[in-house]
Amino acid sequence: MDYPWLHAPAAEVAETARTLLGWELAAGGVRVRLTEVEAYAGTGEDPASHAHRGPTPRTTVMFGPAGHAYTYFVFGMHWCLNIVCGRDGEAAAVLVRAGEVVDGLPTARARRGDVADRDLARGPARLAVALGVTAAANGTCVLDGSGPLLLSPPTRPVARAEVSAGPRVGVAAAHDVPWRFWITGDPTVSPYRRHVPRRRT
DNA sequence: GCCTGGATTCCG
DNA sequence: GGAATCCAGGCT
To answer: A95-113, pLDDT tens digit by residue?
Structure first.
């Protein structure tokens, strides 16, 4: 499958992110319903984007076709998962920040440990663990089943009225743009944390 | 090459 | 509030 709105121009990536709420991502026997996402625009458009200063080896897949996964390793221990958006050559992406595990609960728990159901995929790195996402998923297509991840339409659609918006989590730059979207009141949405500069040593 | 700091999480 | 499996990217 392919979805035309994934290919919307990078300037409209916020709308693309909002659209992804309620969609489901499956991997390794676990299925997650997306409850929280963040939009990142491309080169020169968004100082918070990894692609802000142009392509680099790490961000190559962000410049590729929409519908592919961009995964990256951060803080020496965590993986985060993005879905590449925009037209070819544009580097827009949507960071998948949290979800509700709707299938494969035992597998998710085996990966995440003995935590509350709502915490299984509550936060981008936790969600990556729950889905078993690592470097292996980077650059793979999430639309056609050729990779470990598969995106599918909502089982229960999310109405616009159910969606809240606010500043992105942990991002210092562009704190004024409300490019984080979540399903209002959903218990699996991660708590907001303002960016805190790391203390100098 | 070296150095900085990170789209986070967990623990104290 | 700080430390923790690293390492990308900017700068010298």
So the answer is: 999 999 999 999 999 999 9
Say if A199 falls within a structural domain: no
- Are the beta carbons of A159 and A176 closer than 8 angstroms? no
CA of A168: nucleotide with nearest C1': B7
Q: What is the pLDDT of residues A141-191, one digit of tens each?
A: 999 999 999 999 999 999 999 999 999 999 988 999 999 999 999 999 999
DSSP states of A72-93: EEETTTEEEEEEE-SSTT---E
Number of structural domains found in chain A: 1
CA of residue A37 to C1' of nucleotide B5, angstroms: 24
Task: Name the protein residue, with chain letter, whose CA is nearest the C1' of C1.
Answer: A199
Domain span including residue A164:
4-183
The answer to whether strand B lies under 7 Å from the CB of residue A48 is: yes
Q: Which residues 116-145 on A are within 7 A of strand B at the CB atom?
A: 123-127
Token couple for A175? 């704190």
Is residue A166, in this structure, part of any structural domain at all?
yes
Q: Is residue A196 part of a domain?
A: no
